[in-house]
Amino acid sequence: MTKAIVAGVEVDTRHFIGGERVESAETFPDHSPIDGAFLADIHRGGKREVDMAMAAAKAAFPIWSKMTPQERGVILHRVADLVEERIEELSIVETTDNGSLLRSHRRGVMPRVAMNFRFFADYAMNQLSYPDFDTRGHRNHVTWDPTGVVGVITPWNAPLMLATWRIGPALAAGDTVVAKPPEWTPLTASLLADITVEAGMPPGVFNVVQGYGEEAGAALTSHPDLSRISFTGSVPTAKLVARAAADNLVPCSFELGGKSPLIITDDADLDIAVTVAVEQYDNAGQVCLSGTRILVQRGIADAFKAAFIEKAQQIKQGDPRDLETDIGPQVHPDHFARVKGFVDRAASEGQNIVMGGGPNADLGGNFFKPTLIDNPTPGSEIATQEVFGPVLVMQQFDTDEQAIQMANDTEFGLAAVLICGDKARAEAITEHLVAGTVWVNCFFVRDLGAPFGGSKKSGIGREGGIWSFDFYADVKNTVFAPNGWKE
Ligand code: NAD
User: Fold this and answer.
1) Are residues 239 and 326 in the same domain?
2) Is 255 an annotated catalytic residue?
3) Is residue 447 part of a domain?
4) End-to-end CA distance of the chain
5) Of 403, 397, 466, 465, which Cα lies nearest the Cα of 431?
6) Do 401 and 271 fall within a single domain?
7) Active-site residue among 288, 386, 420, 463?
8) Is residue 11 part of a domain?
């Protein structure tokens, strides 16, 4: 089988290499997390397919890299336009494949996918410059040169959005790309491949190899011809990728996990605090940035907890295709079991589960109830490890110094959220937070021009705006002497 009809949309289940569809001898099944329905048999790539894709991407590099940013921009804009034209198809396929909300895809996620191409194409055209400067009459001229073939490996929680956040700037920088989509959610990457053909992208500039992480992923990250590896996923996998990259000395950009703090001070606007805290259950908790450790000041802890539970209990869990639904299922039975394992172990340790705590029996399958654990033992698994499900813990603090100490007392540093009623106090607290992104009285607002990434174990490097180009390009300084010219 080379094609599947998913939610009424035809999806090619093969790889996309050098502008052609390529088959493998074996396939792997893809199911919907909503109801377990079989969706497609996906071609299972490994070293053979990765080698083919790398050769195609290498061959396309001289063509793509020699085009001007304007010429590439025309094609990348067409990709963005086609994504926008196909928001319905992309949204329903993504929802069916990974269980996230159809309404979010339509309104926010897929428009953002289009922006990932348009924004970085425009940036390369208009903003990628640095003023020449002088050293004793010598002119220093800085350029951002294409590097070669970028390997892009991404996870399942927002498949097309996370992939294109890396693919968009890499292509805009003049690099070619081999992408390995997540095996639990392989479908929208294949639709993107169709879109690049229609947009007129030269064959081999963008390639997709489907497959398992330990097969296709490992073959890609250990490939000697890569110029960059862009990896989004978990810390244990990042360590494997880093080892593979070390053998070839390939620079890596890592966007990894988190256990981010959400600090609520006693002068905070309670409505904002409750709204932002409940938002941490979005995407059924499968969001790397989630503020899963609520740190609330003791004086308002009881009032906050009561208001939070009241609002959280109104979350409508159900079929993500239903526009009234607020959160859907966990992405896969294995991930559901992982989330349940964390909560079951917390229960057996005697941790205080004040809301949720188990599967949603009304829905069955992969649906896990929004869960709150109050005052977990400091240092316990549930208080320190990333669950990546709808599971929050709540702890109390007395002073701002203590809040900062608790917030930073983690191996992660992806994000931090502060809800605070006093500007000077907020500035004093945020100054000491160790995180790639800090939100004050808000959550998730993010500009593509801003730096994004994680501190400590949450990542290596920053992307967004100029930071993306500093990674996907070779930044070069050319020094022109004042003499030696034949007039
Ligand atoms: P994962 O590390 O298991 O998998 C991520 C990707 O790596 C998948 O495509 C997988 O196939 C591939 N992979 C697996 N083994 C590999 C190997 N040996 N070599 C090369 N590739 C391999 O992560 P996941 O469970 O899919 O995603 C969840 C994690 O991703 C969480 O920790 C979450 O916080 C993190 N995440 C981070 C961000 C961010 O921007 N910082 C965004 C989303 C998710």
Assistant:
1) no
2) yes
3) no
4) 66
5) 403
6) yes
7) 288
8) yes
Helix 87-98 × helix 159-172 angle, to 10°:
130
Domain extent at residue 42? 3-256+458-477
Query: Residue 487 has what pLDDT?
Result: 79
Residue 344 identity? D
Separation between Cα atoms, residue 128 and residue 124, nearest integer Å: 5
Residue 420 and residue 473 in one domain: no
8-state DSSP, 280:
T
Q: Is 420 a catalytic residue?
A: no
Q: Using only the alpha carbons of the chain, give its radius of gyration.
A: 23
Give the distance (Å) from ligand 1 centre to CA of residue 76.
26
Residues 131-172 have pLDDT tens digits of 999 999 999 999 999 999 999 999 999 999 999 999 999 999
- The DSSP 8-state label assigned to residue 452 in this structure reads B
Distance CA 319, CA 103 (A): 11
Do 22 and 111 have their domain in common? yes
CA distances from 73 to 77, 145, 173, 328 (A): 6, 16, 10, 37
pLDDT at residue 179, rounded to an integer = 99
pLDDT at position 201 is 98
| From 94, 255, 386, 463, active-site residue | 255
3-state secondary structure of 142: strand
Segments in the chain below pLDDT 70: none
DSSP 185-253: S-HHHHHHHHHHHHTTPPTTSEEE----IIIIIHHHHT-TTEEEEEEES-HHHHHHHHHHHHHHT--EE
Q: Report pLDDT digits (tens) over 443-455.
A: 999 999 999 999 9
Q: Which string of b and e fits 46-69 if b means at least 16 CB within 10 Å?
A: beebbbbbbbbbbebbeebbebeb
pLDDT at 97: 98
Q: Are residues 240 and 278 in the same domain?
A: no
**Which of 169, 179, 63, 61 shows the shortest CA–CA distance to 118?**
169
Q: Are 19 and 200 in contact (CB under 8 A)?
A: no
User: What is the domain count for the chain?
Assistant: 2
DSSP 141: E
DSSP states of 15-30: EEETTEEE--S-EEEE
* pLDDT at residue 1 in the model: 81
Check residue 234 and give its pLDDT.
97
Residues in the ligand 1 pocket, defined by CB under 6 Å:
153-157, 162, 180, 182-183, 213-214, 217-218, 221, 232-234, 237, 240-241, 255-258, 288, 386, 388, 414, 454, 459
